[in-house]
Amino acid sequence: METVSKANSTWRTIDLAHCGLFATLMMIGANITSFAPFLVVGGVPITLQTFFAVLAGLVLGSRKGAIACTVYMLIGIAGAPVFAKFSGGFSSVLLPTFGFIVSFIFSAFVAGWIVERYKTLPSYIIAALVGTAINYVFGTNWMYFAYTLWAGAPEGFTYKMVWLWMVAPIPKDIILAIFAGFFAYRLQKVLKIIPIK
Q: What is the pLDDT of residues 30-59, one digit of tens each?
């Protein structure tokens, strides 16, 4: 009984470490624009958050990947400067771009859910691309409704304009998603973090 309890305790500690690691990676990825301020288009920072969110799901699985992204979001809401441009605090919830932060949770969960069931290299790449697509669809629509309902929309604002803002980061995130798929597949074969069912 003691041996089982100790094993369960060790597994829980590892889970926390994994989630903490990816939450930290997202904090780092969020603030790349601090060193390259020109990587901001239409008020949307071009960051590595989507890459790390999708990677969390691919490497940790649906549950732990989503938890890692949730921890990151809650730390930021609590006031730590972990969002893009070292921002944070509860007021971030009202920002038009906050939908992208929420979407990381869904992106990680769905990407993880796919690779928990299909463990081939194409599945990892597809899962990464699906996770990235979720990030864009959820985040962009949130931003549109935010500008429409409570944030001050720029002159001539339209739904098409919101998606035009996304044109700049899309190629980068597609390339990173494919890389995440390759990387996570190789990493999973070594670490075997996601149990084979």
A: 887 666 666 666 666 667 899 999 999 999
12 vs 113: CA distance, rounded Å = 20
Cα distance between residue 114 and residue 109, in whole Å = 9
Domain-embedded: residue 49: yes
Give the domain CATH number at 119. 1.10.1760.20
What is the rounded radius of gyration, in angstroms, for the C-alpha atoms of the chain?
17
Residue 1 covered by a domain: no
pTM of the model: 0.85
Provide the domain count of the chain. Answer: 1
Range of the domain at 169: 9-35+42-191
pLDDT per residue as tens digits for the range 124-167: 999 999 999 999 999 999 999 999 998 888 888 899 999 998 88
DSSP states along 108-127: HHHHHHHHHH--SHHHHHHH
| Beta-bridge partners for 45 | 40
Contacts of residues 116-121 at CB distance under 8 Å and 24 or more positions apart, as own/partner, are 116/61, 116/62, 116/194, 116/197, 117/197, 119/188, 119/196, 121/181, 121/182, 121/185
Residue 85 lies inside a defined structural domain of this protein: yes
